[in-house]
## 1
Amino acid sequence: MNNAKKFWIETFGCQMNVHDSEKVSGTLMAHGYAPVATMEEADLILFNTCSIRDKAAQKVFGRLSQFKALQEQGKKFGVLGCVAQQEGEAIFKRAPHVSLVVGSASYTRLPDLIAQLDAGEKRVTGLGEASDEAFETDFTRRDNPHRAYLTIIEGCDKHCAYCVVPFTRGKERSRTSASVLEEARRIAESGCTEIQLLGQNVNSYRDPSPAGWSFAELLARVAEVPGLRRVRYTTSHPRDFHPEIVQVMGENPVLCDHVHLPVQSGSTDVLRMMRRDYTREKYLERIATIRACPRPLAVTTDLIVGFPGESDADFERTIDLINEVHYTGAFSFKYSPRPNTESLTWGDSIPEEVKAQRLAILQQRQQDIQWHDNQRYIGRTLEVMIEGYNPRHEQWVARCSTNRIVNFTSSGLRLAGSTQRNGLPVFSQPMQVGEYVHVRITKAGGNSFVGEHVAAPGPGTPLAGPALPGVIV
Ligand code: SAH
Ligand code: SF4
Ligand code: F3S
């Protein structure tokens, strides 16, 4: 393996990209490349890029120019992902030291494209858009032994007016339920206890095999895979968020207490312009279904401010919506005009300072809501999965079922030494990364909790602390 070519990959963007990088790494390793810890050691340097907003897309050109000099040492540069698909061969003009440009719909061809590069070709591209296949590989290199991503659907057919994804990731294509379940079983057999199902719109999943399962059916079956303790999924589109999904979540607590349901705007007029295919009222109906689940579920969202034509009154509707829904978290963005999209032709009518002001108001309000809602957790006991240890604060870092971070101390159980495995610290017994423990919450911030380790509540023991009103977690 000493003579193996070495690669280094840097990833931008969403979980889909993070997981694609795991698949690309596995594919490269199966074709004689070895991963290295720094760019300087690598022969092949890859950037897996994001094009969702202009800032994200520009980042990669900044990174590329920063390391241009490395080309003189014989290193090859490749651009993968959404900027690759978006910009195509124009990347060679802007960054002539790049020799490989591949969009995600062409990753099934990667071994072939890499062979061309190894054979000495100066510029290799994989930019076909019309792939019918999902990018599947037997070689996926998962970095986290406790939590695994699993793609169930690729691409997007929704064509929201502002969004590049349908152009960068091609049309929607679901994997067969058999292949999803087989991979879920394999992941569980490796000792991993948490799976996150991925797709730009996971709930638009439709099993292409004769079984023809819906997303809800698939979710129910994945949650039954022996060994799995947590199953999450992201992202859900409100249009296809049918009540059956909430029903199966209510029936099996392995399905985590969290739904990410991007609303984008609280104004039906803006939603119509965005081509989101639902009204404010329809969205709130979905929320009501989620709130009716026998187990309280946390809801998070994505929001865009400053969409072309968004009036003060429209923006007020968004503020009003976050006041009503009480999200446990929200990602909010200023509208960014993107190539090829429908709204590009409508101009960018909201001035930058108005966008900035609206974003600040929105984020402040949302933080206040989160902080206030989270206080009610003080005194409650939550089950968490340990993700690491922060020696500076002498705290364990963990995550609860709703996906919030819980930092906790453990009197009596001190860290006895640590080593590194797959980039994650591994601790000596009795507690280690990947383990599930119970934590009593003592302090709550807007985005995370602080607590202390307690013995697990016995069967039937009610959770400690005041009961929550139930509708909001
Ligand atoms: N498929 C997911 C979203 C993927 S993109 C969905 O439909 O919900 C993640 C988020 O980026 C979006 O939810 C949206 O809030 C934001 N986004 C997408 N395009 C954007 C643009 N042109 N400007 C600003 N934010 C954008
Ligand atoms: Fe983009 Fe809309 Fe598709 Fe989400 S559903 S990826 S926002 S086009
Ligand atoms: Fe970005 Fe592509 Fe994901 S544009 S958000 S990396 S699908």
## 2
Amino acid sequence: MKSSDIALLRSAVRDVTDFPSMGIVFKDITPLLSDAALFRLTVDAVTETIEGQGVTKIIGIDARGFIFAAAAADRLGLGFVPVRKKGKLPWRTESTEYDLEYGSNCVEIHADAVIPGERVWLVDDVLATGGTAAAAAELVKRLGGELAGMTFLMELEFLRGSRRLPENIPVASILTF
Ligand code: AMP
């Protein structure tokens, strides 16, 4: 991806201060999604990181991760698997809880979504503290899947989320802040 394209994507992300709570700077991607050329560029960038990696499915994280994971899966002819917040998936699930700054969160995956030994790739919009991605990685591991790598549209480097992710798994962050 050209550095001028990366700059374009970066400039389309809108910072919203104190959302959803005081002190948080929310990275709003809706300006990037609503522009046809920018949306395509974003999906191009995500797709490039996964192409040729020998994976059969892309795992997308609830909810903004779904947008890019599903689009990239379609481009690459791969399956799409949602990791969702607790209580949203209808069938038998594997679930894991993780700590947030205040309290905890729980994410789930369908128990048959990944076949043992299957190589998969994880996609989300933002890597912040890394708790969500680490939990999703744990779910893939419990199902016996092989996590080949992860792609984030944005990494908030100052939160050092990559330290919480499993070691030796490639992480691609298209934009870093
Ligand atoms: P974390 O578990 O702290 O890495 O948070 C990652 C998840 O929370 C992702 O699914 C993001 O969609 C969301 N998230 C965390 N921080 C932000 C932020 N500053 N702006 C937008 N989304 C965020």
